[in-house]
Amino acid sequence: MDQNRTLKKRIGPVGLLFIGTGSIIGSGWLFAALYAARDAGPSAVVSWILAAIMLGVIALVFAELGAALPLPGGFARYPHVTFGGLTSFVASWLCWLAYMVIPSVETMAILEYLGNEVPWLITTHQEERSLSVWGTLIAAVLLFSLMVINILGVQWVTHSNNVITVWKILIPTLTGVVLILVGFNATNFSEFGLAPRGLSGIFEALAAGGVVFSLLGYRTIVELAGEAKKPQRDVPIAIFGSLLICTAIFVLVQIAFIGALPPEELAKGWQGIVIEGASGPFAAFAMALGLGWLATILYIDATVSPYGTALIFSSSSARLVLAMGKNRNIPGFFKKISPRGIPVRALIVNWLVGMLLLAPLPGWDELAGIVSSVAMLTSAVTALAFLALRRSHPELQRPFKVPFPMVTGVVAFIFASLIAYWTGWTVNRTVLFALIVGMILLVLTIPGMKTGTRPLHAVHALWMLPWLGGILALSWASDYPGGAGLITAPWGECLVTVWCLLMVPLALRSALGRTRSDELISGILKEIADADAPAEETAS
What we know:
Layout: H1 13-24, H2 28-40, H3 44-68, H4 74-83, H5 85-114, E1 122-125, E2 128-131, H6 133-152, H7 154-183, H8 198-208, H9 211-215, H10 219-223, H11 231-260, H12 281-288, H13 292-326, H14 344-356, H15 364-392, H16 405-422, H17 425-445, H18 464-477, H19 491-509, H20 514-532
Antiparallel strand pairs: 1-2
């Protein structure tokens, strides 16, 4: 494998749009409506709309960066050219952990959903469901198949995903429409009030109830932008197109869930919802309404939707490892590409790590919160990279330009930090542990790297200490899950906003100097030019 080989540009506009859409519609639509309703009641619908608005602002940043610097593993590369090695390591380490968890979570979701009809896939201990031995073996086979499809090439991924995504759009839409027509009870929306837990419930559902987790898939477009035929045109269209399509579907599904909920389920309030077969709530609704045909379709979809999402995230995580290798955050072994333009080594390593993650993990809702927090922290770093790049390189060619860039970048940074805060201390203490583990690994591997090959630019990363420390401290003091309850909404949100506004100038003053940043960007532009040079076979 030659490390100078480049990934092949084979993804067309439809393929890129369907990558985003297919990444978003996974296990989230099967589970998030339940957890969001528990947290926020009928106002869960507001959580979806608010999440779409906040992620839409953050997506503006991604769209400009992805079109200007279309690189594989963009979330590792953008912080690197603006803040240096240590900042990019922290961002890419957290992002990689999130991406690695998702294929395993989606695979486990498939088997947990099917476990209602195939009980030998699941074992129950003290009311906690986990995979049985047979379930674990099948999960391992599913993860292996994801690696094989990716090794066959990005064309296989896009073609497979295009077919799967058409199904993934149709089935949630069909489910929402049928449940509204057949089993809708409008009085559920006034039971205990439209917002039984007020703002806290809306924010908690958004961050920790699976809402943001369900919409995060559009990030994969940025990770795969380096393999798009015309990224300058297609990346912004794919990001916003997938986000709009999926938000509309999820809002429909949430309305259908609330309306189809049997009245007896609300006897103990929205937080007391306990649906028989809760690992498959929509299938349970369909059976209760005598819609056996819909339940059958839903059990099929419980395999198709999560598998499609796992497929795309397994591709994205490999590109992230590739980018970390190019940044020299990890050994150069991982940045090498096969003669066919496939990051085979990264795919194999990710598969092995994914196998380890099949060990007992927290519940779907807690994992969704962890992934959401990590993804938002990396999004916040990317927003600051966007601001730094706008200030230091105004002449950089930007096919898609964000309106009011400085305001948009600051708002995106605040929004991402708020969502991480809303996930609560139960989630964020796990994120803190992951950060500590990453730092230990970084320190342990430094002696094995040749002098001068791994510039960390540590002084340019110092701003992260007060920023992360402040967000984590406020999370501990909040009244969100696991917090001490010392700060309530909206005062906690005000404090997070003020803290972020203080951190923006500190971070921008810490950015790399123009000379060093120019060197890194020149290398990236050469990499893009090398990838554009050969005439490659294309895919729609």
